[in-house]
Amino acid sequence: MKKQASIIVLIPHYNNPEGLKASLSSINESEEKVDILIVDDGSTKSQFNKEEIIDCYRCGEIRFLDLDSNVGIERALNFGLKEIEKHNYAYIGRLDCGDICKKDKFKKQLQLMNEDPNLYLLGTWVNIIDTKGKHLYHLKHPQTYKEIKKKMYLNSMFVHPTVVFRSQLMQEIGYYPTRFEAAEDYAFFFKVINKFKSENYPEFLLDYVIDEDSISSSKRKIQVKSRIRIILDNFYFGWYPVYGLLRNVSLLFVSRKFTTKLKKLFSKN
């Protein structure tokens, strides 16, 4: 009997088979076996060929979950988590179609988490690139749990497709909240850090694509409004919550293109 992998990576897919294949092909683990669950969220065009997808992946087994209609990423992720619960994986990773993993990304994260049983969620630093693969800037979120808890009120301190978390979290805090459209990850991360140690691995282990068609771009104002509600749900009177609330309100009046230019300008490349 084959030994099951300790980790499965959850990848939501919607009409982006080329991005899916690019992400799968980028997973290059020298030792760690990494299984994959692809949740197709009711794709209406450019449906992928499952045999081609399986053929392009060499680091573990691939599972598929096909949804009959497009339910949105929040619910698609939760359908995936419920499916994963059936298979007793110790860890769950995240990846989005088009994002590119660096060599041994998951090995490095799992090694640190295995060494620290109190560490429940671990993200990484990322290279921000455009859809043509051009480097825009580096994104280095805080590494330590203490700093993450403070600065979480400004914005998410984790890049969603970098994270690995213990599957035990589902029993402890539940699934992704569905009442915060386009900000389910921010709400989920707040729930995690309120109870469990969470950190970022201080290495650029993912190329993260900024796409004008992504949720963060196409639903910009909806996402910011959801973030404001999440901050209010976790609010206390202090510097970071007050500043974070004012900062996010101000983001309602600027475009993501403008903030990307600012980040590129002030980032240390």
In a nutshell, what does this entry contain?
This protein is an alpha/beta fold and 269 residues long. 39% of the residues lie in helices and 22% in strands.
How would you describe what is shown here?
With 269 residues, this protein is an alpha/beta fold. It has a single domain, classed as Alpha-Beta Complex (Spore Coat Polysaccharide Biosynthesis Protein SpsA, Chain A). Helices cover 39% and strands 22% of the residues. Strands 1, 2, 3, 4, 5, 6, 7, 8 and 9 form a nine-stranded mixed beta sheet that branches. β1, α1 and β2 form a beta-alpha-beta unit. α9 (220-233) packs antiparallel against α10 (239-251). It is globular and about 55 Å long.
Shape: globular
Largest sheet descriptor: 9 strands, mixed
Kindly provide the radius of gyration, computed on alpha-carbon positions and rounded to a whole number of angstroms.
18 Å
CATH superfamily: Spore Coat Polysaccharide Biosynthesis Protein SpsA, Chain A
Helix content: 25-40%
Q: What do we call the CATH topology?
A: Spore Coat Polysaccharide Biosynthesis Protein SpsA, Chain A
Low-pLDDT stretches are none
Number of domains: 1
Enzyme class: transferase
Keywords: Glycosyltransferase, Transferase
GO molecular function, one term: glycosyltransferase activity
Domain Glycosyltransferase 2-like: 9-172
Which tags fit this structure?
9 strands; 269 residues; 9-stranded mixed sheet; globular; 22% strand; 11 helices; alpha/beta
Fold topology:
Layout: E1 7-13, H1 17-26, E2 34-41, H2 50-55, E3 62-67, H3 73-85, E4 91-94, E5 100-101, H4 105-115, E6 119-129, E7 135-139, H5 145-151, E8 164-166, H6 169-173, H7 184-193, E9 197-209, H8 215-218, H9 220-233, H10 239-251, H11 256-266
Parallel strand pairs: 1-2, 1-4, 2-3, 6-9
Antiparallel strand pairs: 4-8, 5-9, 6-7, 6-8
GO molecular function, one term: glycosyltransferase activity
Pfam families: Glycos_transf_2
Family: Belongs to the glycosyltransferase 2 family.
